[in-house]
Amino acid sequence: MVEEDSVRVVRCGGSELNFRRAVFSADSKYIFCVSGDFVKVHSTATEECVHILQGHRNLVTGIQLNPNNHLQLYSCSFDGTIKLWDYIDGILIKTFIVGHKLHALFTLAYVFQLVSVKLPKSSSQEIEAKELSFVLDYINQSPKCIAFGNEVKFALVFYFVYKISLQFTLSSSKNKKHAKNNFTCVACHPKEDCIATGHKDGKIRLWRNFDDDKKYTYTCLHWHHDLVMDLAFSVTGTSLLSGGRESVLVEWRDATEKNKEFLPRLGATIEHISVSPAGDLFCTSHSDNKIIIIHRNLEASAVIQGLVKDSNIFTGLMIDPRTKALVLNGKPGHLQFYSLQHDKQLYNLDIIQQEYINDYGLIQIELTKAAFGCYGNWLATVEQRQEKETELELQMKLWMYNKKTQGFVLNTKVNMPHEDHITALCFCNAEKLENPTLVTASKDGHFKVWILTDDSDIYKKAVGWTCDFVGSYHKYQATNCCFSEDGSLLAVGFEEIVTIWDSETWELKCTFCQRAGNIRHLCFGRLTCSKYLLGATENGILCCWNLLSCALEWSAKLNVRVMEPDPHSENIAAISQSSVGSDLFVFKPSEPRPLYIQKNISREEVQWGVFVPRDVPESFTSEAYQWLNRSQFYFLTKSQVTIPLQKAEESLPTTPFYFILGKHREQQDEKINEALESELVQLPLTENIPAISELLHTPAHVLPSAAFLCSKFVNSLLLSKETKSCEEIPEDVDMEEEKESDDSDVENDFTEKTQDTNDTDLGEDIIHQLSKSEEKELRKFRKVDYSWITVL
């Protein structure tokens, strides 16, 4: 059972992994990256997320290793705090409250200072010398680096840190127009007095002699045709790494123009470059929200891919019926399949199948629509390109799922399925549908019905899609379309008018018109509410029509931006936009009063939403939260994916221990609930035993020896005589009788003897008559959990 106050909106993933530079651990086994208000710890060998460091209340803006402890990590955030983490165990060590927004973090080793100490005169054995006066900072701790002159008139100190503030300027060339010398990035040489800077003109400049603002010099390296996004020196300083919009990592060896190596076709603009402290690994962060781990020989070894979010998500949010993955626009021309449970991308499906050219002036082909049909067996996509108003290139593709390759294969390609932009497409997903059916709606004033037909020839058997019917209504633009649950009716929105069509004969049955603006969203009710049709208009009116009476059932003034039906219930979720934020309303079409309202679920504008079926149904008892029993509602904002549900109970992390103890814990919770209902006494649960809690929640490197913990663990499993319940005696009796009878007899005897023993209360008398050998034998049986018998 889940209590009412345990439901809240939480962020579940989709944040930017490329917001800041990734950081390697000292041994190159782990790589750290910011992810919204989290810090993720990934294995460089397996790409898997080992830990998620949670604790910040706002965007994490910087991460750095602790220079004095390579097993610790610092992070800073817009919440005004700096946190110190033990990333091996994934625990928070300390929080430093700064109180101001922190935009970046830099860590250095301890700086040594030269101070004078006044020694007080006293007869005591121990004297505190508190009077300290500052002399000099940024000195070397070695006494060889400090010397005092005669009568302490001067001191000679070797400086190892420059404390010089200089300004270098680059003037635009007079012979070249629009020269772009603006600085874009900077990197310092780890060994020499050299600074590398990147510029908008694609050049890299190496500055030397910068301790003198009149004698400084620079040399140029030039390969990038566009601005240089980031620079990084290798650990030894023998190589300089650069990256930009060409999606190519360039290694400049010995800082010379001729000696350079390339790692091309990395897929997207390089935004950050990081080098491991050991020098054996590099990594690049890209604009498509991925991190590529690269070996020293410039070979890519691993890819950590996050959710790719384009500026425009034309396809909306869909759920793949087969993998339960979130499907939406990915990198240009692709559909991405994203795991919501693991917050990582599963794979990309190349729809356009053309090489992408990164040029801001080039009109690209855009993937605008997509829909799944027939329980994931078919996928329909629409792509378009329009260079001028009269030059529209439109193409629709039908993809069939191939069980052998476990992927989608192109089946049918239709050039110019409509004469204008396609506004909607939907499959008929009725259970008893004989022939798959697809409907497309367009601004050309028509909707078209596409059916699957036999396309076999003498060489092979095949199927293909063809147009079966074309419909229109008074030359209005078709804006929406959807099928009823049983597939018998088709609703098509023509601007302000909703038309209902018979899917057998394609005859127009009735029309609905409220003159409240163009229809923005359209959907049928489900299950017991299948007789209702819902429509949301651009003027902020939500209408519900009764299909049996062909009349308006109710209407409400609500500026609906997102409206999604739950495929497993009658519930419908609607998100409205206000000046404060986005509000969530959950209701059934049969009743205008909402089941659940949550104001300001997001300060950002919600772009899309979708219901995702649960693998295991929940058991919310409150009527206000029962809509979450079988599905979860995910919604997408500009910065992240969130869901309005999170249990308040503490959960074990998904580790190998979770699969051992987590499942056992769930089974124990079920047994507790059943035992409470039948008023039976249960044996103590493992989570209440201090030894197990100590084993699971204490970092491994500070645990006592295994010999010490073993005895404590074994003793904690034994029950004291004072707390023995009367159920222990029937268990002992049953174990003796088990040798003489089968399992079914044992189950019957256990129930009867439990009741008899509870009535007569003979437990204590029998316990006092046990001998030492019998008590020792009994302790062996107590180590085994027999509580499963109570559920039979």
UniProtKB/TrEMBL annotation:
It holds the Pfam family Beta-prop_WDR75_2nd. Residues 728-749 have a biased composition (Acidic residues). Residues 728-765 are annotated as: Disordered. SUPFAM superfamilies: WD40 repeat-like (SSF50978). WD repeats lie at residues 53-95. The keyword rRNA processing applies. One of its GO terms (biological process) is positive regulation of rRNA processing. It is found in: Nucleus, Nucleolus. Residues 317-640 form the WD repeat-containing protein 75 second beta-propeller domain. Keywords: Nucleus, Repeat, Ribosome biogenesis, rRNA processing, Transcription, WD repeat. One of its GO terms (cellular component) is small-subunit processome. GO terms for molecular function: RNA binding. PROSITE patterns: WD_REPEATS_2, WD_REPEATS_REGION. This is WD repeat domain 75. It comes from Ursus americanus (American black bear).
